[in-house]
Predict the 3D structure of the following.
Amino acid sequence: MYKNNVFYFLVIVIIGWNTSVYSQQDNIAWKEESHVYTKVLDAPLKGYGLGDSTSLLQLAHQNPTILALIFTRCTGICNPFLLQLSEKLEWEIEHKNFNIVVISFDPRDTEADMSALAKRFHLDQEKQWIFGVTDSIESLNKSIDFNPIRDETRQQYDHEALLVGINSDGYITKKLIGMRSTSDLALLVGSIYNSFTPTHQLPNKNRLFSCFNYDPKTGKNTPGLGLLFIALPAILTIFILFTSNYLGKSERIG
C-alpha cells in the first residue's frame, strides 16, 4: 500500500512539473511575439556620444538597432546578459553595421552610471554600442511590452533579460527573452534587416487548444485547454492505475 502511494505521488509530481515546463515555455514564446510588427516609441535618449536631440527612432533610421534593457545596480542577470551579448554578437558586429542600444529602465540611473557600465565591459570605444537613459522609460516599456517589477525590500527589479530588434523603419521585428544561443541572436540580427525569421503564432479565438489564451488588450494570459491536453496522458495513467488497484483489491476480498 505504501509503495503504491509513493508511486502515485511521484506521478502527480511529474504531471505538475511537465505542465509547468510546457506552460512556461509557451508563455515566454507568446511574450516574444507581443508587440512584434508594431512601431517602437520614439524615446529621447541621453548618453555618452549622443547629441542633445537624439532619439531611439533616429538611431534606428541611421542603422537597424538591437535594444537591450538593463539597470546598473542589478545583482542578477544584467551583467552576465551584457557579457553574453558582447561575446556572441562579436562576429555579427564585424560583418554588419547595426546599433546595440543599451538603455536603463531604472529612473535612478544617470548618463554617468551608463558610461561607467560601458567602460566596465570595455565597450565605451565601440561605436556600435550605445549606452543611455531616457525620460520616457515607462512609455518605452509599454511600447515593447516590458514589465519590470520593483522590489523595495531588495532594492532590485524582477525582470526578464529582453532584446528587441528594430528595423530602419522603427518597427519591432523580433524579441528574445532570456540568455540565448548564438543562432538565436543571428536570427534577431537577420530580422532587423527584414530577413524572414520563424515566429510563434499568437493564440486567438480559432486556436482552441492553446495552453494560454492571450488577451492583446490587457496583455494577460488565462489558462486554456492546451494545459489539460498536456496533462491528459498522465491523468489517464493515474486513473487506470487507481482502477486496476481497486479492482485487484475487490477480487482479493471476493
About this structure: The two ends are 19 Å apart (CA to CA).
